[in-house]
Every structure is written in C-alpha cells, then in structure tokens.
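Intended use. Records such as the Arginine--tRNA ligase entry shown here are meant for training and evaluating sequence-to-structure methods. They are not intended to support clinical decisions.
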Amino acid sequence: MDLKQVLAVCLKDYLHGVLTQEKIYNLIEIPKNPEHGDLAFPCFQLAKLLKKSPVEIATELSEELGKSNHFSKVNPIGPYLNVFFSSKEIGKKVVTEVLKDGHAFGKGSIGENKTVVLDMSSPNIARPFSMGHLRSTVIGNALANLADKCGYKTVKINHLGDWGTQFGKLITAYKKWGDEEKVKANPIQELSKLYVKFHEEAEINHNLEAEARAAFKSLEDGDKENLQLWQWFRDESLKAFMGIYDLLGVSFDSYNGEAFYNDKMDEVVDLLKERKLLETSDGAEVVKLDNNQLPPCLIKKSDGATLYATRDLAAAIYRQKTYQFDTALYVVGQEQTVHFKQVKGVLEKLDFGWADGMHHIPFGLYLKDGKRMSTRKGRVILLEEVLREAIQLAEKNIKDKNPTLVNANQVAESVGVGAIIFHDLKNDRMNNIEFSLKDMLTFEGETGPYVQYTHARAMSILQKAEIDEYEFHGLNDQGSWEIIKHLNHFPDIIENAYNQFSPSVLAKYLIHLSQSFNKYYAKVRIIEKDEELLSRLSLVKAVTIVLKEGLRILGVKAPNEM
Ligand code: ARG
C-alpha cells in the first residue's frame, strides 16, 4: 500500500481542484524524525494559491483530516501538516497481504511483456576469474532477479572472452611448453602460466609474436588442430568457472561468447558498407561517430581481423533478433565505458531504434588495503580460493556462536559466500570497495551475516511458538509500526532498485528492516501468552518472508538456523 497515495487522496478531497492529486503526491515528504509523523505535507504552495498563510492552512487541513479514520493523529507543525496513520488498520492490511502472498509479495508488473537481456560475468578463457568478473556476476545476477520480480522476462548471457589474438599466443605457448596432464589438473593456473611465459619469452625471442599471429590467423581460417586446442582450452576453463558459479549460485541462459559471433560479423560489416559508414583510417576500417568526444569505432584491423567491438555489434543485433529485447544491460567495469558508447553510437548510426534500450552498467573496483585488488598480479590468487577462505572463516564464526548446529558446513557456505555477495551489493555500484573478509563476515553491523542471522533468529522464534495458522489483528506499539512501515515499502524498494539498476537500494533496505526487527526483539517479549501473541508472531512471520525473499533476489541464501 502506498501511504503517500492514501494521504494524497484524502487531501485531494479537501482541496477540490486547487492542486491535482499528482502534485499533492509529489509534495508529500517523510519527516526525518519519525516522532513528528509518518508523513508530512508542506503547505507553502497552497498558501499562494489560497492566499492564506501556510500555518493557517496546515491548521485547517489538520482539523479536516482529523475526522478520517485513516489517521490516528494529525498535527500541524508550523507550515507542515504531519500525520500518523492508524497503525492498527494499515498494519492489518500490510501484514495480511505479506502472509497471503508469501514470497510473491512485492511482485510488480512494470516489466510485463518486456524482455531484459543481461550481459554479465563474461570472464576470459584461460585467464583467472578476476574480481571485476565477480562484481559483474553478482551485480548482474541481482539485477536479473530484480527485473524478474518486476515482471520482466530475463535472459542472462555469459559473453565469454573466448576469441581474439590471445588464443594465438596460447596455442603457440602450449605447443612449445605445454603439458596436457598439468593443464587438465589445473586448467586456469597452467594456461595462465603459459600465457605469462609467452610474454616473458617474447621479450627475447622476437619471432614469437609473429608465430602467435600466424597461429591465430590459422585458427580463424579453421585449422583443425588449432581449433581442437582452442575447444579444449575453452571446455577446461568453463569447467573451472562452473565451480565458481556453483558456489555463487548463479546460472546463465546462454554461454554464447565472442567466438559465437565469428560467422555473424560479415553481416555487420556489409551493412556498414552499404550505409556508407565505413571509412579507412591508417589501413583500418572505422566508423566515425557523431559525438566527437568519442574516438572512431574500430571495425576491422589492417590485416582484416575483426575486433572486440565488431563482435559486440554482431552480438547486439543477434540478441535483438533472437530475444527482441526491450532493455539490454551490459554489466561491465567502468574501464569499458568508451567501448560501450561506441557500440551504441554505431548502432544508432544504423538507425536501430532499439539501441535506446542498451545500457552500460559500470561498477567500481575492489581495493585491498587501499590498492587495486587483482587476481592477476604476482601470485595468481584464484577467486575460488577467496571464496573458500570466506567459507572457512564463516565456519569458525558459526562454531563459536552455535557449536551444536547441524549442517554447519552447508550453513558456512551460505554465510561465507553470502557475506561476499552482500558486501558487494550493499555498496553503491560505482564506489570502490575495500575487500576485508573479516569485516564482511561479522554478525554485527551492515553485513550479510547480520541480515541472515536476523532471519534465523526470527525463524527460531516461530519454531518455538509452533503455530500453523497466522493471523494479524493489529498491534499498537511504535516498534511494530516501524517494522510494518518497512514491510509496506518492499514493493517500492524492488521497483526503485531495478529502475536505478542499484541492488544497493535493496541491500540497504534489508539492513534497515533487520535493524527495526532487532530493536523490536530487544524490547518486546514476543512469546508471551496474551491476546496479542498471534499478531506478534504473524508480524515475525511476515519479517521472515520479506527478509528471505529480499536476500534471494540479491543472490544470498537464508538458512533457517545459524
Ligand atoms: N570478457 C570481457 C572482459 O573480461 C568482458 C566482456 C563484456 N561483455 C561484452 N559484451 N563486451 O573484459
């Protein structure tokens, strides 16, 4: 229920024709101090229209509104009209709705009959899964879940980096120094080593680069042996990535990577030619863009090889044909901002109206002790190791807190991985994030484990109470009303988080809901045999529903016990 709407409708009844309901709605504010009211309406604008002082108007309106049974208290505070809703009535509506809808509570309809494709994760074959790929995976997954909750059809695409000149280098290096058994045992580490060795050797042996170019050329021309190697590298790498996706609980609808578009680029190049958009510059073929802040988009190198951008153009056209998307989100680090502007710019020059729906969703970096955190430099720190470490630390924390917990391993996995995901999503997307496992994993403060723990605590209350039919009749205290207002916000939060492409809106909301619940829990004896017992338990039940569903959307599990 939109409380602003309720107030706007009431005010409109008293202000016939002076202000439209929409204007009234937009003027309504949420007081900073909840003790002043649930909502406030400033009367300055009305003053001009009614030729009375705002204070006078606030007083008059409060007398009128005081008659309505929607409000328990209506107060003029200077030029503001402040209202308190009758928490019993509203609470009954809200909690009853949550209990009735269950995990479907908050399902929206803005996305009905619309499709969103998400280009996300997209690691590079034979290279370590970087922290940037982790962010892309986690943010992309949350955005997909948010879109789904808003009613969109979603398509999650892993645009694997499985083509390009680096494969010429890898094939060359493997043929010279590779060992099949070693690669099989540790694909990413071994292939990365070969890649690094290639660059070291190339400093001394100046023929190597040319060999690698020739190897890639023969790969592009369909050389059987090289293609087989490429396929093998791809399969082994994907297997290793799958281990990470399993841990993160993320799946994809498509693994069509860059190589998939090999036979789909001629079409783009022909189209650009036909529209006379291709120009030659230093032997390369480029498209100049209208926005002269942007460098020309490189389509073909002087040796005829196609490029990253060419593949993205082909991919966008293919996705539009295949999925008829309304929105295409590219969840990729901010260092690729220019690239995505160029790609969109070229599609616009081709008069593809649907390019309007393409959005680059950039994000900041992970920092460790203030410096860029990398899975590449020096020792190869594999993301899987980071995740395992988080799980171990979670296990230790859990065993300290609850030594007799059954399924401790499984819970530790949900908590360890959940902590990393939540920490990522709670931060505004563009911010750089300090990566500290210790901070992420504490049960206090604004962490994933804190929200998970709140959920588990609420679940254990319900388990103790052993109720099977919930029914909310109304509660009068301030603590429960704070919780109810939060619950009531959930549908709006989902829509806002999606519209702003900001999972942090939802993550912060879950922290606030948890805080309001924990405050309540500290103050009120929930399992006390009085006439409000069933209402309190129903409220607790509603909290567990929303916390669990909110965490699910973020990609975080909510164990019943921790
Ligand atoms: N593989 C690329 C990288 O690791 C990211 C690909 C992003 N998606 C795209 N359609 N270009 O940098």
